[in-house]
Write a structure and sequence with these properties.
Elements: E1 7-12, H1 19-30, E2 33-36, H2 37-42, H3 49-58, H4 66-82, E3 93-96, H5 102-107, E4 113-121, H6 125-139, H7 147-161, E5 173-177, H8 182-192, H9 194-197
Parallel strand pairs: 1-3, 1-4, 2-3, 4-5
Helix pairs in contact: 1-8
The chain binds adenosine-5'-diphosphate (ADP).
Length: 198
């Protein structure tokens, strides 16, 4: 990793809130770099040792252990920098799905400077199930197609990930309602974080 740590904006929110959708749109709109831990994991060859390990957790709705998560994601990030796909001197890193535990929040400090946290909120849990169910049909994701797995993922979010927000000072956190159309959420985030994202 270079001496200059990438500046990172963290995307938080329960599964189905739209972190991936909004993250991708923000990157297109602002030239930032969107990095999703879930996408990195799903890109692992399923037959590889790390791929098998990932699916053994994800197919039960559980989080992958912290050490494995950090190692895989930072190896991937270094690869992006080494191949000039991501330029930390010019681009913000939008981290989607990482950190997901208090321990990960501490561990990533070695690799990135966390500038801000964008939290997508949703009150209606049934809406999350509906969204995830739709995505499961489109993308064929095993962990999206099964209500019991989704319930476990939501439980992991409430028990482990939501608490990570306590690790950061309140002035670094901006919350937005994700109970609107993606373009409306995007508008709110762009307006609310315009200085950061321009
Ligand atoms: P979602 O946000 O909809 O739950 P993701 O694609 O972000 O979906 O994550 C899918 C799965 O990948 C998670 O259920 C978990 O098993 C694993 N995962 C992703 N990010 C992390 C992380 N930071 N720490 C541990 N496990 C992770």
């Amino acid at each position: 990793m270079s001496a200059n740590k990438p500046k990172a904006v963290l995307m938080f929110g329960p599964p189905g809130a739209g972190k991936g959708t909004i993250g991708a749109m923000l990157c297109t709109a602002g030239g930032h770099f969107h990095l999703s831990s879930g996408d990195i994991f799903r890109g692992l060859p399923p037959e590889s040792k790390s791929g098998q390990l990932f699916y053994s957790y994800a197919n039960e709705g559980k989080l992958v252990p912290d050490d494995v998560t950090i190692e895989i994601c930072w190896r991937y990030l270094n690869g992006l920098i080494d191949t000039n796909k991501f330029d930390p001197s010019k681009q913000l890193l939008l981290l989607d799905g990482l950190p997901r535990t208090a321990n990960q929040a501490k561990l990533i400090e070695e690799y990135v400077d966390v500038e801000h946290i964008i939290v997508l909120t949703i009150e209606d849990e049934e809406e999350l199930y509906r969204r995830i169910g739709r995505r499961g049909k489109i993308e064929g994701r095993n962990d999206d197609g099964d209500r019991a797995i989704v319930t476990k993922r939501l439980q992991e979010y409430h028990e482990k990930t939501a608490k990570v927000l306590e690790y950061y000072p309140a002035e670094k956190i901006s919350k937005f309602s994700a109970e609107q159309a993606p373009v409306e959420v995007l508008r709110d985030v762009l307006v609310g974080c315009s200085d950061l994202l321009k």
